[in-house]
Amino acid sequence: MADSSMCNAKNKLEGKVAIITGGASGIGETTARLFADHGARMIVIADIQEELGRQVATSIGVGKCHYVHCDVTNECQVKALVDSTVQNYGQLDIMFSNAGILSSSDQTVLDLDFSAFDRLFAINVRGMAACVKHAARVMVEGGVRGSIVCTASVAGSCGGKRRTDYHMSKHAVIGLVRSASVQLGVHGIRVNCVSPHGLATPLTCHAYGMPADEVEKLFEPQTPLEGVVLRAGHVADAVLFLACRDSEFVTGHDLVVDGGFLIR
To answer: What is catalyzed by this enzyme (predicted)?
Structure first.
């Protein structure tokens, strides 16, 4: 029989300490607010958007949310982020490794720009791995049966006519999650990822050079599920599920939030 605490709709993360990278906007910001609504004791927002990150943390609540500047391409900064969280708040229960970027160009195989490729992989793959590595280390050391969630993408489960480097990077994230889940299961640490279809986050709007409503019109016809537009809140709900005890027997899983895009 399920523990009664698993059924408490508004306190799924009561007393938990979480880090959210890329938490100053988009999916990260929305997830931070949802975590706060569900009783998280402290949410540490890590981002390179200093002013925005501080504004989000303040709006959530000084005693509830804290901003830390962190460039995930710098492993020393990732380690410092994780270590300071444990030192200040006693433990780390949840790592939502969400920081990532889109391709800066169309990037087909025939004309790969490896300088752009390397930058994207430094953030989307190396940065993701650093977050998983250092979060897992402190969870193991602290005996915490934690949850690590990574942001992948439907691009990690299919090919594409462009943005080749982005597709490659998200395939790598799913590989990281599957390997880490096998290795960390012995410590009771769960590792999963969430894979959204395209949605109108500030990052996506900037990459496509379109306002949010136009980005939504671009992606909406690509999914068979009619009458619903994918929003950051849908992805945040999936992350909450993977972070809390509702999914305590789920690990190594890629939770697709795509309105049926991959099964068309």
So the answer is: 21-O-acetyl-isomeliandiol + A = (21S)-21-acetoxyl-apo-melianone + AH2
